[in-house]
Amino acid sequence: MSYASDFITTAKREFRYLARREFDELQENTVGILLVLPLVATLVALYLYPTVQAIIYSLQDISIFLGDSEVVGLANYIDLLRSGTFYNALWNGIIYTAGSVLLTVVVGVATGLLLNRTFTGERIATGLILVPYMVPTVAAVILFRWMLDGLYGVGNYALVVSTLIDEPIAWLASTRFAMPALILISGWRLYPFVTMLVLAKLQTIPKSYYESARLMGASRWEMFRHITLPQLRGVLFVAILLRLVWTFNLFDIIWLGTQGGPGNATETLPIMAYRLTFIGNDLGEGASVAVVTFLVLAVIVYGYFRLYGTTEEPR
Amino acid sequence: MTSLSPQLTQQQRHYLERIATYTAVIVTTFVVLIPLIWGFLSTIRPSEELFSWPPVIVPSEVSFENYHILFEQTNFALYFRNSLIVALTTIILTLLIAIPAAYAVSRYEFHGRRYIANLSVLIYMFPLILLGIPLFIIFQNIGLTNSLFGLALAHTAFALPFALLLLRVFFLDITPEIEESARLAGASRVTIVTKIILPLSLPGIVATSIFAFFLSWNEYFFALIILNDSALYTLPLGIANLIDMATTNWGMILGGVMIMILPPVLFVFLVYKHLIKGFGVSTV
């Protein structure tokens, strides 16, 4: 027994040693490819393959339970482009994205500038101002649902007291106010992303720029306008690009906040795709909405690059 | 505030500026934390105070009854456990796959290296929904729906591109000379990685783990698609489900929210020192 186990241990050691030597003698090219193989395999299996699969489903008349399917070509897409719900979702997505990105960028830049000043307790303040980014989406949405509650929401109370509104509003249940409320939630949850990027960049601007500007008699506004903003250009380009993409694709805040309602008032393309697939059980139509979401996004990103990407390379 | 007229001395101006900065910092910090403060206050006050108009700001008495109910009468503890399992599995899988790849990309010359590095940017453009719909079918076919491992796998796929970028930055920070001298001293490739690269890039590995944890702990969409059985719900699904079941008990639901927020925040504060120290490790 003990001989056997000794033998196995030795054999194992021997094998490991040989394997190591073998590994050391491989070509650099081979080692490199071996090491990235698990990553590539995972990404192919969980990104590329599903995407191809989604495109195939979108060309079929097929339910989520699979069963009988029929290839219908572009019929799903044609139906989609003829339906009003599609344009409603597209428009909602544009409004939601524009509103959220604007809010996150404005608050993110403002907080970034503020935290870049020198004051006691910088680290604590920075940590606290970044906290919303660590709050899970579900938690953020529930906190706001409670504050914006139509009957007992403290947010409503504050607005009534400050006479901005006459009576409490059930924000998330209102056709008119649900979208602004969702934008507010997204803004609160996501502005620290911009804050972090802006703050990191601000700390690399040489102090001497401002000193020479001051010597030349520049005002604060002029310094901000001609030194800070141009320096932030690169980082803002990236921040807006990423936020644009992520917000347009965003599902959880809207689904948890309103499920796209009331009616279709806050339904965006990802929500529509989910609803068609998993509630309507129409895999073909749902997949076609998902594919179109990607195409619309590609167009938006292309336009963004054409508009702002030419003068300076994104970093 | 008075206007900054030219008559103000340098001293006065400086003083005013200080006041302005501190006021702005305090007000901003307070405003962005209002949802959390209000949420917490709502969990510790008597329930009749939750439903009063005008709202009571300061709780008349402090009680932790809501937290008690949460653990006694709901499956909250189970959701917490499930979330923890998925997050830890995600961290392990992510590190196992991303470390070798990031190392290869930062050190070895091989065909297609450039594409791997640029892949991540492209991948984050993918709408989640475009992946989620077919992944549901694929996972169903291979029995990974209603499985915590299946969910962790989806989270890993989602964490990988960024993990690759992050680890690569840390690996690139280690000067190749160290490896060169180790190689001259006869160290094998494996030894170089386990004895030199991994210890030196520990802060990067910690950062990547934190990122993977955040992602998994927070993730709602894949959980919604993959998990049907309520015994397998992770926190995001479980808490969202409490709302549907018990709309009126906001105190209890917010208690769950507070507990869910705690780990990510604590996590960062706990390793903060380690992170800072790690960045200071000299590689000479």
TrEMBL record, chain A:
Q: Name one GO biological process term.
A: transmembrane transport
Question: Where found?
Answer: Cell membrane
Protein topology in the membrane: Multi-pass membrane protein
Keywords annotated in UniProt: Cell membrane, Membrane, Transmembrane, Transmembrane helix, Transport
What is the name attached to this protein's record? Binding-protein-dependent transport system inner membrane protein
Cell membrane keyword on record: yes
Give TM regions. Answer: 30-49, 94-115, 127-148, 168-191, 235-256, 286-305
SUPFAM superfamilies assigned: MetI-like (SSF161098)
Spell out the family assignment given in the record's similarity comment.
Belongs to the binding-protein-dependent transport system permease family.
Q: Identify the residues that the record assigns to the ABC transmembrane type-1 domain, covering every copy.
A: 90-306
Q: Name one Pfam family in it.
A: BPD_transp_1
Q: Which GO terms describe its cellular component?
A: plasma membrane
Q: What is its main location?
A: membrane
Coiled coil regions, renumbered to chain:
none
From TrEMBL, chain B:
Q: Which family does it belong to?
A: Belongs to the binding-protein-dependent transport system permease family.
> What's a Pfam family this protein contains?
BPD_transp_1
Sorted alphabetically, the Gene Ontology BP terms of this entry are: transmembrane transport
Which compartments does it reside in?
Answer: Cell membrane
Provide the alphabetized UniProt keywords: Cell membrane, Membrane, Transmembrane, Transmembrane helix, Transport
Q: Name one GO cellular component term.
A: plasma membrane
Q: Give the membrane topology.
A: Multi-pass membrane protein
Coiled-coil residues are none
Per its UniProt entry, which superkingdom is the organism in? Answer: Archaea
Question: What Gene3D superfamilies does this protein map onto?
Answer: MetI-like
Could you tell me which InterPro entries the record lists for this protein? BP-dep_ABC_trans_perm, MetI-like, MetI-like_sf
Q: Does the keyword Chloroplast apply?
A: no
| Name of the protein in its database record | Binding-protein-dependent transport system inner membrane protein
Instruction: Report TM segments.
Output: 20-41, 84-105, 117-142, 148-171, 192-214, 220-243, 250-272
Instruction: Tell me what organism the protein belongs to.
Output: Natrialba chahannaoensis JCM 10990
Q: Which PROSITE patterns match?
A: ABC_TM1
Q: Does the keyword Cell membrane apply?
A: yes
Span of domain ABC transmembrane type-1 = 80-271
